[in-house]
Amino acid sequence: MLRYGKGMAEKACHTFASTTQVGLTQVLAPMDNSLKFLIATFITILGITGCSEDKQSGPSPTSGSVAGVQQLASDTPKKDIFRIYDEFIAAEAVAKECGISSPELEEQHKKNFITVAHAVRNDLTSKHGKPKSSLDEFLHGHDEMIRTRTLEMLKSHPCNSTDAKVVIERYKLQSQWQVPADS
Prior knowledge:
Elements: H1 8-24, H2 33-46, H3 66-75, H4 80-98, H5 103-128, H6 132-156, H7 162-176
Helix pairs in contact: 1-4, 1-6, 2-3, 4-5, 4-6, 4-7, 5-7
């Protein structure tokens, strides 16, 4: 989600980032370079989001350049894949609640979310030996918490607000994302 003032996008970004960091920091380890490249490519394609900005990261690279992707890969904090995961959940909740999704968008968004979720699951299982069954339970609860908080924020920032429109645009961009062929 993009940061616009102190609106819903900023609050949601903080809430999602904090929740994810608290819930997942205990099981994270540094990502391998191929996962960093996938994340960097994803972020570059969609544009740097407010949730992806981090005070410890340097200035944002020029979107789409090879040097920019490489710089972003080295500067991207390891938590970005989890923030991206949360953004997918939040954007889907807003899109459904605001009735802007179509079957085609939903299908493409779900396909892309599966790619992101797969990267999250791989990171947690391969690096930490977490059993799939415990991940399913944890992620299900985490997903529901993100959806609930997003829908609560939507009550004070209705679908026609600028903040909700930003999240809806994010949903459309996430749906249009094309996974790089070498990923």
